[in-house]
Amino acid sequence: MKLWILLFGLVVSGCANQVPTKTSNCGDQSIKGSPSDVKTFTFEDARRGKAETCEGEDGAFYPITVSGSRMLVLRKQISEPLLCGIDELPTDAECTQVHINHFSDELAARLTKRGIRIGGIGLGACGDATVEANAWGLWNLSVSVHDWRDVDPASEEVAKLMKEWSIGRRFGVSVLKPVCAIPL
After folding, report:
1. What's the rounded mean pLDDT across residues 156-167?
2. Mean pLDDT value across residues 138-147
3. What is the Cα–Cα distance from 124 to 140, expressed in whole angstroms?
C-alpha cells in the first residue's frame, strides 16, 4: 500500500510541472475587429436579425432565417423516412429534415475554403443549453467565428447553404472568443 502511495505522489509531483499557465502557447484569446465591422447583410430572401448580446459575455449571436421546406434536426427529433441523406440533397422532395451534422460538415468545409477560421458549430453566444432539444431557438445554434470581419461572409455562406438545401429553420453566426485547449 505504501508503494502505491509513493508512486501516486511521484506521478502527481511530476505532473505538477506540466500544469498550463497563463504563459501557455495559446495565442491571443480576444475577438478580432470590432462590431462596427459588421455591415448590412443582404442575400436573396435571407434575413439576418439584429445582434443578440448577453450580459457578461463578449461577442454576439446573429440569427439567420431563410424560407424553406426542410428543417434542421438533432438526433432526438429524427423521423427516419423523412430524413435527408447527403446524396439526396437538395433534389429529393420527399425528404423534409436535414440532420445538423450534414449541414455542419458542409458549412465548415465552405467556410474553411473561404479562409474563415471557425471555432465550431453548435451552441451559440447567449445560448441556453439547459433547455430541451426541441427548444431550438433558445440554443442559438450557429457557427462561431473569432473576428467581427468574418460575420458578413459567414452569414452569406450560412444563408447560401440554407437556400440551396431549402432549410427554413433559424441558424446563425456567433462571434465568440477563441477557446484555448491544452491537451493533458
Report:
1. 92
2. 89
3. 5
Q: Does residue 159 surpass a pLDDT of 90?
A: yes
How does DSSP assign the chain, residue by residue? Answer: -HHHHHHHHHHHHHHHTT---TTSS----S-BS-GGG-----BTTBEEPPPB--TT--SEEEEEE---SBEEE-GGG--GGGBPPGGGTTT-TT--EEEHHHHHHHHHHHHHHTT--EEEEES-TT--TTS-TT-HHHHT-EEEESBGGGHHHHHHHHHHHHHHTTB-S-EEEEE---------
The predicted pLDDT at position 149 comes to: 95
Scan for cell 430524413, then name that residue.
Answer: 83
* Amino acid letter, 183: P
Q: Where are the domains of the chain?
A: 28-175
Q: The whole model's pTM is what? A: 0.77
d(CA 152, CA 173): 9
Higher pLDDT, 81 or 34: 34
